[in-house]
Amino acid sequence: MSTFKTALRMALAHPLYLLIYTVFISLMGVFIAASVSWNSSQLTEYKPYDANVIVVDRDDSDLSRALTKHLGSRFELVTGVGDDTYDLADALSKSNSAKGSADCVFFIPEGFEGDLVAAARAGQALPKLDVTYGAGTMAAALSSAEASRWISLAGAAAALEPTASNGGVAKAAEHAAAKRAEVEIEQVKVDSTAAATLESYFNFGAYAIISSVIVSVGLVFSGMNEPERVRRMDAGPISERQRSLAVFAAAAVLTVCIWFVSSMMGVAGFAGAVAEVGVGRVCLALSATFALACTPLAVGFALSSLGAREELLNGVGNLLGMLMTFLGGAWMPLSLMGSAVQTVAHFVPTFWVNDAISKALAADLTSAVLGDIACDLGVTALFAVAIAAAGLALARAKSRA
């Protein structure tokens, strides 16, 4: 019992780690899950992203006027602003809701038309516009890409029709730029906002569990394996086997406490969602996060077998926490990643845990779905067993050496 208490006291001697990794990160997960918008099902019509642009035309040619007209048809063309530096800077500094505000300013230089046509027909690089961005960098980048697209189309028209007038090149560019891909809204079935919110929290909450357990448990194992402490315990009446079991029991209790605190913060924060989804489904999802907690427990044990200290445990805990949650799809849906990333994701436990969570919170829990969840939990447990076995082998090799 004394060994068990000593091991727990070693973890509690670092309350800041428990506070940051368990409480603070879990609280951050509550805010992230609460801020996730699941109103996409209400979107029935595609609306292009808008931007406020200013065009300073110093060429006053057919092509420059056509480019200005095109930008005005695609975005909100801000007029009535002087072209001196002070007025333009004032427009860029205003908020989007203010009158006369702009996301970016395009400067069409003098000689733009002649340079564009000549470069296109000579096979040279086309001239570029000078662009100044405001605070809305995303909108400015979008409008800048649209202007570059129009210039490329005008250059292609000039090269394909060597005898065409500048006005003809402008009309050809306008005609080509008017063609756009058809966009439709694909309605994605979401069983409930409550289920989606809980799934988001549990997916992100894995970061708190992984990092906190690795650091806290690793500190317990490494502290109990210090040579001076081992010599003192060897002089006592408790056998090495009993000491090892007591230390492992303390680490297991610590892991359960971390999992419980992190999980209950989500359950308490989204009590309404839990009531809507159902306690049984939420408990099934929590069983998946509990299975995940066994993996960082094994990682902490393996790292201590290698002699890892506080700094290394912190680094590995944070790195593995971010990496495993990323590959589990907590930061970005795996469907948006490449096939190589999706393949690698199968080799981390968070992938299987998040799959089990999504199925546990689904609308229909059939026998087939329950079987899939059991398979996911089994694979997750195998990760912990494999890492723990490696840790035992390292510990045995170290003791023999």
UniProtKB/TrEMBL annotation:
GO cellular component: membrane
Entry's transmembrane regions: 12-38, 204-224, 245-273, 279-303, 315-334, 377-395
Gene Ontology terms, MF aspect: ABC-type transporter activity
Principal place of residence: membrane
Residue stretches making up the ABC-2 type transporter transmembrane domain: 23-390
Entry membrane topology: Multi-pass membrane protein
Location in or out of the cell: Membrane
Signal sequence region: none
InterPro entries, per the entry: ABC-2_transporter, ABC2_TM
Keyword GTP-binding assigned: no
Keyword Secreted listed: no
Keywords annotated in UniProt: Membrane, Transmembrane, Transmembrane helix
Protein name per its UniProtKB record: ABC transporter permease
Naturally occurring in which organism (per UniProt): Collinsella aerofaciens
